[in-house]
Amino acid sequence: MERVPAESPPAADRKGAEEDDDFGYRLFPDRNKKPQSFLVRSLFTFHNKCQLMLRMTLETNPYARLLLEALKQSGCTVFNDRHFSCENCDGCVSGGFDAATSQIVLCQNNIRQQSHMNRVVTHELIHAFDHCRAHVDWFKNVKHLACSEIRAANLSGDCTLMNEIARFKFGLKGHHQTCVRDRAIRSILAVRKVSKETAEKAVDEVFDACFNDLEPFGRIPHSKADAKRAYRDFQNRDRYHANL
């Protein structure tokens, strides 16, 4: 889920969420409502705009295209109508990965710009990729959650120089790492009833290993140009191995 401007997964068991609201579903009220018909949803401008921006991201954004290909190669093909849902959310969030349904929630009332949609989709696809390739215990192991949040903040473009300047945050040496750490902690606190000290400890204990896990990009994509190069490299991986 994204706590503006950070994202993290609600990743919750439905029954448990209703009982003690530990997993962030309070921020996604549409998750527990009966699905609306296409005709009813089509009447809402937010929903239409969300769907159009999502399609644009999936078709043109190099971050998203690489992740979609990596998920497919890992045996987790993503389908637009099955794995993405545009919904109304709490005012402080922009998106989330629902591990209970393997579905990405996009907050249609909070995502207003294409660049924002690009970042949210990329961030949540990284969670989906981690969910696909590893046995992530989203619900009980805060270190697992911390690792995926570190990777999402590091690889999604959340902490690019331009985004940080837009947030009026400036720094020199080590600023990217500081941004990744801070956003991972904020995301954990958004969806888990844990103390700030617990979140900080979890992030710090796994930071080095998870920050340096650059799959499937192979590099930190600091820009669209970096992401395009990473996508080309990813497409050529199998070609290289086939020639051995």
UniProtKB/TrEMBL annotation:
<keyword id="KW-0479">Metal-binding</keyword>
<protein>
    <recommendedName>
        <fullName>Mitochondrial inner membrane protease ATP23</fullName>
        <ecNumber>3.4.24.-</ecNumber>
    </recommendedName>
</protein>
<keyword id="KW-0482">Metalloprotease</keyword>
<dbReference type="GO" id="GO:0004222">
    <property type="term" value="F:metalloendopeptidase activity"/>
</dbReference>
<comment type="similarity">
    <text>Belongs to the peptidase M76 family.</text>
</comment>
<keyword id="KW-0645">Protease</keyword>
<dbReference type="GO" id="GO:0005739">
    <property type="term" value="C:mitochondrion"/>
</dbReference>
<dbReference type="GO" id="GO:0046872">
    <property type="term" value="F:metal ion binding"/>
</dbReference>
<dbReference type="GO" id="GO:0033615">
    <property type="term" value="P:mitochondrial proton-transporting ATP synthase complex assembly"/>
</dbReference>
<dbReference type="InterPro" id="IPR019165">
    <property type="entry name" value="Peptidase_M76_ATP23"/>
</dbReference>
<keyword id="KW-0378">Hydrolase</keyword>
<feature type="region of interest" description="Disordered">
    <location>
        <begin position="1"/>
        <end position="25"/>
    </location>
</feature>
<dbReference type="GO" id="GO:0034982">
    <property type="term" value="P:mitochondrial protein processing"/>
</dbReference>
<dbReference type="Pfam" id="PF09768">
    <property type="entry name" value="Peptidase_M76"/>
</dbReference>
